[in-house]
Amino acid sequence: MILWEVWRERCSRKYEEKHQWQACPIIFRIGFWIIRMCDRFSPTRRSSAEFLKTIGAMGIKHKDPPIQPPKIIYWQSPPGNFVALNVDGACQDGLAAGGGVIRNSYGLHIANFFLFL
Fold it and tell me: Which domain of life does the UniProt lineage start with (predicted)?
């Protein structure tokens, strides 16, 4: 809709002989569409300070998703006669590597490994 408003203004200037261009009406029409879109938009991430400053200057209310408490993640020991195998890997620019560690039910190190691919 915003591009349509800009296109309509451009065509009016080009093809209507008596068209007098004024900046405010098109800015208000575009602002109207931005506000309508923001009312229907549900963000999944929090907005940056710069973005909030920009939309605040335009008079647009922002909606950020609620802040979620951090999830605490920790190692859990395996039951009795079992061992735990934790592995991870990464790649970047065509290089890859991976590795892991094996621990007993007391959390004591049994073995580890790594590999560059």
Answer: Eukaryota
* Residue 49 backbone phi and psi in degrees, to 5: -60, -40
Query: 107 is in which domain, residue-wise?
Result: 84-116
Domain presence at residue 105: yes
Q: Quick check: 49 and 57 in contact, CB under 8 A?
A: no
Domain count, the chain: 2
pLDDT tens digits along 2-53: 777 778 877 887 788 776 766 677 777 777 777 777 777 778 888 888 888 8
pTM higher than 0.70: no
Distance CA 90, CA 99 (A): 9
CA geometry: angle at 79 spanning 74 and 83, to 5°?
Answer: 80
Query: Same domain, yes or no, for 52 and 89?
Result: no
The pLDDT tens digits of the residues spanning 39-77 come to 777 788 888 888 888 878 877 777 788 888 999 988 888
Does residue 76 sit within a domain? no
Cβ neighbours of 103 (radius 10 Å): 18
**36 occurs within a structural domain:** yes
